[in-house]
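Morning F.,

Quick status update on the modeling queue. The single chain you submitted on Monday has been processed. Sequence for confirmation:
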Amino acid sequence: MGKPIMAKATAVWLVDNTTLTFKQIADFTEMHELEVQGIADGDVAAGVKGFDPVANNQLTQDEIDKAEADPLRKLKLKFNPAAVGEEKRRGPRYTPLSKRQDRPNSILWLVKFHPELSDGQISKLVGTTKPTIQSIRERTHWNIANMQPIDPVALGLCKQSELDAAVQKAAAKKAAEGEAMSDDDRRKLLSTEQSLEMETEPRIPTAIEGLETFSLSDDDDSDDDKTDTLVDADSFFNLPGDSDDEDEQP
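Structure tokens below.
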């Protein structure tokens, strides 16, 4: 059963104009029974004007009469053919004015770190147009020199769950197409939950890779050199010419 529009105002009207039980009204408006009781007591929805569901084509008077006669009967929302499919139709995502200036930065982040996402997926995530995404991909955007990649989740332009779902969908598409991917590409296709569950693997920086076994000489040679270089400590205090001076003294 669908939820009526203006559910709280509809509950106010039903409480004031019918003898329906709190349970019946709560089930019809998808509210809690105690909340409906609060409306009857005046503690909830104070000042809210009632919304007539009969006049607004959500209920029939015959349905209300049957429910009043049978406290166990549930109200049924009136079928409206014109409203079929309305819940599935979605317009472009609304972006607050305060965050619209950061939207190109979020697009740059998605293009840079998730190039597998299509223009349509990015458009749904941050609420932008495909020409804008294409200009950022080709670096022909008028402000590309001053843009910095910023995570759209951190900016509040989309939810982490929505980004993860888009990434997983892109991963499934890549797998179906059978394209070869590098290890870095596979890591990008992982969702946040999957990446956090993975065990961390120590990696050697590429700048020093291969130097972990590097040495100037072999171990055997180094031991021989140490023994050869051992000298008497007293020799450090005997300066050249000291022995000649002692011989010349009477």
